[in-house]
Amino acid sequence: MTRFLLPPDLDESFLVGALDPGHTLRLGPPERLTVTYLDTFDWRLHRAGLALTEERGRRRRLVLFQPGRDSFVVSTGSTPRTADDLPQGHLAETIGPLMDIRALVEIGELSVERRDGRVENHEGDMVARIRLERSGARAANGGSRSFASNTLRSSSSDPFNALVKAGGVEEIPPHDLEVAAEAGGRIPGGYSSKLRIRLDSEQTAGAAARTILLVLLDTVEANVPGTIDDLDTEFLHDLRAACRRSRSALTQLEGVLPPEVVAHFKTEFKWLGGITGPLRDLDVYLLEMPTYRSLLTDALAGNLEPLEKLIAKERAIAHRAVARALRSLRFNRFVESWREALENTGTDSAPLADRRIADLAAKRITKAYRRVLKRGGNLGPEPPAEALHRLRIDAKKLRYLLEFFRSLYPKTEITARIKELKRLQDILGGFNDMEVQRDRLSGYARELRSDRGVKTSSILTVGRLSGVLERRQEDFRLAFHDAFVGFSGEPARAAFGRLFGGKGSM
Amino acid sequence: MKSLAVWTIKGGVGKTSAAVNLAHAAATDGLRTLLWDLDPQGAASFYLRIPPGMEGAVESITRKRTALADLVLPTEFDNLTILPADFAYRHLDLALDATKKPRKRFAAKLDGLADRHDLVILDCPPSVSLVSETVIKTVDAVLIPVIPSTLSMRTLHQVRVFISEQGRGADVLPFLSMVDLRKKMHNELGLACLADPAFLTVAIPSASVVEKMGITRAPVAATLPSQPAARAFTALWREIRERMEI
Ligand SMILES: Nc1ncnc2c1ncn2[C@@H]1O[C@H](COP(=O)(O)OP(=O)(O)O)[C@@H](O)[C@H]1O
Ligand SMILES: [Mg+2]
């Protein structure tokens, strides 16, 4: 279907006159619709070139726009939230994998008056399928009508050749995502879970630190409503990641911001991390449940139900606590004063605030890198859990630094270094996850045991699961050695040295 | 992608009416549906207001390099597209006969439609020919309209023999077409048919709204969705969907 923007005053009678000779316009009755644009909070559909709407009129339908194809339409009983809610078939197959664990959220809403019809030739054959629409949107702040358009869709532009030639119409994209997003106060592609920080090498360390921390604060704030409304688990995940990164930045950029500012906000971030931690752990559990089930035989997997119920119950409690914290005065004061502190540039009284950021970044990265090399190098082929844990923390600090300062380095080079590090981190992280999960599992086993209603078989299954996790953890431990050799080998070290200075002595 | 041919050796038994209405029902149900009008007379195309005639219709089937997908046209309905009939299809038999491994070629052509469609419904001409043989050997299921009469029952038997002779286990899905419950014979034979477990249980009633498709040039459900015949086609589609595991 080609879509044209018509002059606002153009109505059907004008179109009839504009048709090429021998053609007749047949229009059905008008229909009023509310059209809601949907996407994940981080724009996964938009990034893939797709757009999804829910139309509510005489019927309730989902419409998927795909580049180069006709839109796909399917009835729905309710607004889908998760990938599991999608009606089976083409829609679920196309967007389900993209959404993964993210929920669909409302991007914005348009009201549409629509007339469907066709253009016929003198034999009554369809020459083109057409759709006339008048759309309007209200501004996000509830103000007056901020947008109105008059459009024509046609499966063929042939019958409208004269109109097109006369120049009265303009071809436009097949959907109004941009407009709907504006109405909803969003910018298409405007949020990503990936850290996107743009720095300038000549900037002062103070200015760069503020930029980094402001981006992270934006991320924290952007994810608050979705966390409170519990739309999906990624809101909290991203919020916590930004919180951890902020804390890490405050520590690792020591001397760049005033010490009393650092001290105060570090405490606040620590509080936020602590208050949200239990909920995240429970989320991880529920997300892992399908994997757990797949690790057990079918007969045993059924026994996990009491565990799942227990976790779901605890999760509800943990979520209430998080929501309460995010609505609290303390939290709101914290983010407000943090923003104020970051935006207020006049008061930098820190020893390193005026250093060139490129110099400081290279220095801090090199230091963090050396620490990882040293600690990792001291470990034998079967390192103890405690040592791997400490190395994991060091690697994470290095990772954060690389990501903060990514824009200061050539893209392919820095990306390659991050990738090498990530490979090591995946193993350290996997090892740690197993540790944490086993730990919690034994706690759950105790709780289940004290509940008379729970069958012994369920408790034994939890024990069995713990054994499976232990073996997986062992696999991670064994994989560590090779991964570290890859990370710390001569070629990798040389590449690191080239990028961040620090000479060949590393 | 699944494929369903509507075929029998008799004409005038409701093949095209079924093909068009079922395709519309499938599209409404959220399947990207292609109606392939293989009958050179082009009745299915006519019902959807699509003029017959496509440049290279036969070649797009028999030649390896011409893409069939390029000839697919939109219809007036969401998710429903059509490969219109062409009068040249009357020579399709000869053209297929001149093709090396016609069945393999035809199967490859159907495969070429799979990335954009979930279901293809083929409206076949009522003949025993290389075309029908090739189609039957390729599709997942063959839908067979049966009017409750003794003659039709014999025809169904012949059709089943013919399909089994093709040596490929396409599902055979007979259904009762143009049933008039006021007629005693329709009642008796209809009941007898439904005792056969292969028969679809939904019967299509004889109804003037189906006849009038020649005037409305639209599927019944698009113009008169609450008519019994429209509901029957939807119910028949649902049953087919279940039987074909779509
Ligand atoms: N259920 C029905 N009730 C009444 N008339 C029907 C019905 N089905 C088909 N017809 C009519 O019977 C004639 C043949 O139907 P058609 O679908 O073209 O059969 P075929 O494709 O098998 O030749 C057409 O005139 C059609 O309108
Ligand atoms: Mg026919």
Describe this structure in words.
The complex is a heterodimer of chains A (506) and B (246). Helix content of chain A is 55%, strand content 15%. With 506 residues, chain A is an alpha+beta fold. In chain A, strands 1, 2, 3, 4, 5, 6, 7, 8, 9 and 10 form a ten-stranded antiparallel beta sheet that branches. In chain A, a hairpin with a 6-residue loop joins strand 5 and strand 6 (72-75). Chain A is globular and about 85 Å long. Chain B has helices at residues 15-28, 43-47, 59-62, 92-97, 102-111, 130-138, 150-165, 184-194, 208-211, 213-216, 220-223, 228-243, and strands at residues 2-6, 33-37, 73-74, 80-83, 119-123, 141-146, 171-176. With 246 residues, chain B is of the alpha/beta class. In chain B, helix 5 (102-111) packs across helix 6. Chain B has a single domain (2-244), classed as Rossmann fold (3-Layer(aba) Sandwich), CATH 3.40.50. In chain B, strand 6 (141-146), helix 7 (150-165) and strand 7 (171-176) form a beta-alpha-beta unit. The chains are: A alpha+beta (506), B alpha/beta (246). Chain A binds chain B through residues 1, 69-75, 87, 89-91, 118, 120-121, 123-126, 129, 155, and chain B through 28-32, 48-51, 74-76, 78-79, 81, 116, 118, 217. The complex binds adenosine-5'-diphosphate and magnesium ion (MG). Residues 15-16, 39, 43 of chain B line the site of magnesium ion.
